[in-house]
Amino acid sequence: MAAQLKERNHWQSADDAQFNSIGISTDVWLIDLQAPTLIQPNVLSEQEIQRAQRFVSPKRRIGYMVAHTALRHLLSAYSGLSAKELRFIEGAYGKPILSDSQVLHFNLSHSEQYALVAVSSCGPVGVDVEDKMRDLPWEIAPQVFSKREIALMQKLPKQQLVDVFYEGWCRKEALVKADGRGLNLDLTQLEVIDEDICELNMTWSLRRLPEIAGHASALVTPKCATEIRTYRYVNSKFSNSK
């Protein structure tokens, strides 16, 4: 009998994190991107700093630097490697991979306000977070959803439509990121808006994450992941990392 999946319904304190016991669990971290005190330029690469400087919007520049500071500290904590010295390469379809570890997998997603980082040693993972905007970008629906999904959504009341649209979008983005093939996957061939869906196919499982106010989110993991642990990222937990 397969092990029962353990999921958390809230974001735990970073003090509860167990970096040395990730095993076949998947950890997901919630990061506040509007907290410039989280930025530590000394751990970022020159390439990351240069990319941040290209953002015209100060808000986006801060968000990028916060997300990548946190990503480096988290991967350092799990791998035991120096945050500054971590090196990344691109996979066959452009997905970032940690070159210093063959067993640690990660994925990063961000909205304007929050970022999510998923970390796993069980296999590739995908995570996505999206702002639930009032003005629904319905024009992209034919490129994202199947005809059946669109027909179902068109019958929904406005607020429910917004929730289902963004939840479905996040689920598909998370699957694409876990799979690693990006736009080579046809999203319209994958139906995910049914509320009770969990097993996507023979390889991937959809996991629910704790609520993030005003946002939709989704996590996709390999079927071998038996526990999902969710945490809030805080600077004090990693202030001594190098």
- Average pLDDT metric: 87
**CATH architecture classification name:** Alpha-Beta Complex
Low-confidence stretches: none
Q: What is the alpha-carbon Rg in Å?
A: 18 Å
Give the neighbour order of strands across the main sheet.
1-10-2-6-5
Percent strand: 15-25%
Overview of the molecule:
It is a single chain. Helix 1 (46-53) runs antiparallel to helix 2. The longest helix is centred in the first third of the chain and has 22 residues, at 58-79. Strand 8 and strand 9 (215-222) form a beta hairpin. With 242 residues, the chain is α+β, with helices and mostly antiparallel strands. The chain has helices at residues 46-53, 58-79, 141-144, 147-153, 158-179, and strands spanning 6-7, 25-32, 88-90, 96-98, 105-110, 114-120, 126-131, 204-207, 215-222, 227-232. The strands form 3 sheets. A 5-stranded mixed β-sheet has the order 1-10-2-6-5, covered by helices on one side. Strands 7-9-8 form a 3-stranded antiparallel β-sheet, with helices on one face. A two-stranded antiparallel ribbon has the order 3-4.
